[in-house]
């Protein structure tokens, strides 16, 4: 039995260790980010709270039925020997129902329903924000790591160039100053590598924060992404703007808030005028001699004088509604601006992706030609250095173009209200 337990524990530890080394895909990063983010959890709890408040408000349309039971054991003592004891038991049931009112229940119900819808949209928007943040930082980390690879490849090429130049200088084929130039190029590339590594560490730290990753746990490798294929055609800007205005959860949430304010205004106006309620109740007592009591009561009131309080509440609620409407209109303008900016960025990145790929191919051929020409004695170190600089720039531009395309595409989806994987709880 003990041996079997040890084997199971060993297998579990191996599984956990290997599981930690598995590369993280974008879907897994999004899943972990949503599961561990406090703002997402708070938005979910706000939605649950709004749903529970709706349940409470909806209960006002139904009767309340309350069974009651009472048992009393009483002992009274007079002096040293006189005692009096009694036991009493009673049971009954009480039913109460608000049959009719001046509209308070209805407006409370509509207000709560709008609050539930608003909380759902708030949760969706919060999830969308975390999804985009996780996506952005995933691609940014991949970008930073790729730039480290480019910088390391540049260092390796400069080392090779220095070795060749040193050998040529020793043989008297080139001047000693060529060696100094090659050494300077190597040191500069090493500095660039250090800067790229630092940028990669910062990007990984941002990703760890989004993931809620444990401080001492190493971040696994990330699943690489394929080279994107740019679309041949994209929809016009107006299509994205119209979609954003119609689908953005934050706009829908504000719209529901305005609707809730309208119902609150109606409730405040009811309270400033005549209000009435019609109650029905039934009481049944189960004792030696059972009894019952039925009653219907009507109540009406009017705030004849309250120093302007009721009217002030109406004006306050209208001001809050108008403020929400103003924020909604401003948000609409900001959404259109965000969509336009993301659309232009996406369009430019499509062009940059194609141009960077062609430039990389040309720079690679140019570098190969320069190095071969130098080996054959038809080229100089300056030709190789210039070709290498062009290649490094082309590699950097190509890496930036690939991942900036992915980021721009994700940003356009986010700001335009397009569906995002994992946005629905």
If you had to describe this structure to a student in words, what would you say it looks like?
The chain has 425 residues and is α+β, with helices and mostly antiparallel strands. Helix content is 68%, strand content 14%. The chain is built from 9 helices and 4 strands, in the order αααββααααββαα. A 4-stranded antiparallel β-sheet has the order 1-2-3-4, with no helix packed on it. Helix 2 packs across helix 4 and helix 7 (249-271) runs antiparallel to helix 8. The longest helix is centred in the first third of the chain and has 67 residues, at 104-170. It starts with a helix and ends in a 9-residue tail after the last helix. Mean pLDDT is 88; it is low at 8-19.
Gross geometry: elongated
Total number of helices: 9
Q: Count the beta strands.
A: 4
User: What value does the average pLDDT take?
Assistant: 88
Terminal Cα span: 43 Å
> Level of helix content?
55-70%
Q: What summary fits the major beta sheet?
A: 4 strands, antiparallel
Uncertain stretches of 5 or more adjacent residues:
8-19
Structural class designation: alpha+beta
- Sheet-strand content, in percent, reads 5-15%
Strand order of the largest sheet: 1-2-3-4
Radius of gyration: 37 Å
Element string (H = helix, E = strand): HHHEEHHHHEEHH
SSE layout:
Elements (H helix, E strand, L loop, with lengths): L1 H19 L5 H11 L1 H21 L5 E15 L3 E20 L2 H67 L5 H36 L25 H11 L1 H23 L3 E12 L4 E11 L7 H67 L5 H36 L9
Antiparallel strand pairs: 1-2, 2-3, 3-4
Helix pairs in contact: 2-4, 3-4, 4-5, 4-7, 4-9, 6-8, 7-8, 8-9
């Amino acid at each position: 039995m003990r041996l079997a337990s040890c084997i199971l524990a060993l297998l579990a530890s191996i599984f956990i260790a290997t599981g930690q080394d598995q590369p993280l895909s974008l879907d897994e990063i999004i899943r972990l980010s949503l599961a561990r983010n406090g703002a997402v959890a708070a938005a979910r709890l706000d939605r649950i709270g709004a749903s529970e408040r709706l349940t409470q408000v909806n209960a006002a349309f139904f009767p309340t039925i309350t069974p009651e039971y009472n048992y009393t054991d009483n002992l009274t003592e007079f002096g040293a020997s006189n005692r009096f004891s009694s036991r009493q038991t009673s049971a009954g049931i009480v039913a109460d129902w608000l049959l009719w009112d001046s509209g308070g229940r209805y407006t409370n119900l509509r207000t709560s329903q709008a609050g539930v819808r608003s909380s759902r949209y708030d949760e969706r928007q919060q999830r969308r924000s975390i999804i985009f943040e996780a996506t952005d930082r995933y691609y940014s980390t991949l970008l930073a790591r790729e730039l480290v690879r480019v910088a390391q490849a540049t260092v390796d090429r400069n080392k090779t160039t220095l070795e060749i130049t040193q050998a040529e200088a020793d043989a008297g084929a080139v001047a000693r100053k060529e060696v100094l130039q090659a050494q300077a190029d190597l040191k500069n590339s090493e500095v660039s590598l250090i800067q790229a590594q630092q940028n990669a560490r910062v990007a990984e730290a941002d990703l760890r924060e989004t993931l809620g990753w444990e401080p001492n746990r190493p971040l696994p490798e990330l699943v690489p992404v394929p080279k994107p294929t740019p679309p041949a055609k994209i929809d016009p800007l107006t299509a994205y703007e119209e979609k954003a205005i119609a689908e953005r959860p934050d706009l829908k949430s504000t719209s529901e808030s305005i609707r809730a304010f309208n119902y609150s205004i109606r409730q405040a106006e009811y309270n400033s005028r005549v209000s009435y309620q019609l109650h029905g109740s039934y009481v049944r007592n189960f004792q030696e001699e059972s009894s019952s009591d039925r009653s219907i009561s009507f109540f009406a009131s009017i705030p004849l004088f309250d120093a302007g309080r009721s009217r002030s509440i109406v004006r306050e609620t209208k001001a809050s509604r108008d403020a929400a409407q103003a924020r909604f209109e401003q948000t609409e303008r900001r959404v259109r601006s965000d969509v336009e900016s993301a659309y232009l960025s996406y369009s430019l990145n499509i062009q940059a992706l194609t141009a960077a790929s062609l430039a990389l191919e040309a720079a690679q051929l140019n570098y190969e030609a320069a190095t071969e020409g130098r080996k054959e004695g038809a080229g100089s170190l300056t030709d190789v250095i210039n070709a290498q600089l062009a290649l490094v720039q082309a590699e950097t531009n190509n890496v930036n173009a690939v991942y900036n395309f992915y980021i721009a595409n994700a940003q356009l989806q986010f700001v335009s209200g397009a569906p995002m994987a994992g946005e629905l709880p």
